[in-house]
């Protein structure tokens, strides 16, 4: 059971430059993996989503795609919030959504109470699985190129979450994790050494 006076906080944040560099690597790897799967397994990978469409039709397809990406970005944070709320003692009362403007513009979801390490890791990875990988797999088997593209973009967009999980794997499995309120990162709560 977590009690604040028994723990010290150790801050862990993500280096934004490293995240940007790694996102390019992930973008290339995901492009190869998703692209290869799509062109190997899709029923009609060469089907042109714009074939036979008027200029207006193409405009509406592209507008719908942009809307799908915007919705995906918002859903990414909602998925974090949903899983944080499942694990948080006070549920959605402990969840805050907002927008960071510095050092980069980004939507965020913040959990105000500490979670066990594995709970935080599940909450961090679920947007990648539900909005990146799963839609991409569905896209391959339904030959839906736009869904594949959306899944690809949302996979690359989850790089910060993957970096946080990588940091957490190195921490004690029994530790508590407190989400950082204003930076991309968290605090690891380590038990104080109490002399008896």
From TrEMBL:
UniProt KW keywords: Membrane, Transmembrane, Transmembrane helix
Keyword check for Transmembrane: yes
Domain of life: Bacteria
Transmembrane spans: 21-42, 54-87, 120-139, 145-165
InterPro entries documented for this protein: DUF3267
Protein name per Swiss-Prot or TrEMBL: DUF3267 domain-containing protein
């Amino acid at each position: 059971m977590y009690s604040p006076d028994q723990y010290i906080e150790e801050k862990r944040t993500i280096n934004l430059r490293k995240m940007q560099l790694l996102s390019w690597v992930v973008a290339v790897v995901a492009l190869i993996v998703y692209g290869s799967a799509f062109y190997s397994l899709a029923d009609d990978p060469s089907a042109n989503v714009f074939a036979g469409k008027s200029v207006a039709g193409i405009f509406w397809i592209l507008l719908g795609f942009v809307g799908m990406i915007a919705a995906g970005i918002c859903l990414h944070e909602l998925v974090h919030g949903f899983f944080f709320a499942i694990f948080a003692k006070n549920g959605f009362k402990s969840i805050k959504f907002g927008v960071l403007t510095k050092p980069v513009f980004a939507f965020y979801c913040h959990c105000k109470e500490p979670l066990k390490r594995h709970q935080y890791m599940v909450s961090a990875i679920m947007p990648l699985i539900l909005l990146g990988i799963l839609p991409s797999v569905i896209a391959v088997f339904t030959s839906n190129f736009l869904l594949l593209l959306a899944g690809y973009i949302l996979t690359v967009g989850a790089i910060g979450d993957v970096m946080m999980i990588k940091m957490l794997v190195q921490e004690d499995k029994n530790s508590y994790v407190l989400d950082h309120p204003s930076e991309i990162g968290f605090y690891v709560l380590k038990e104080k050494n109490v002399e008896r």
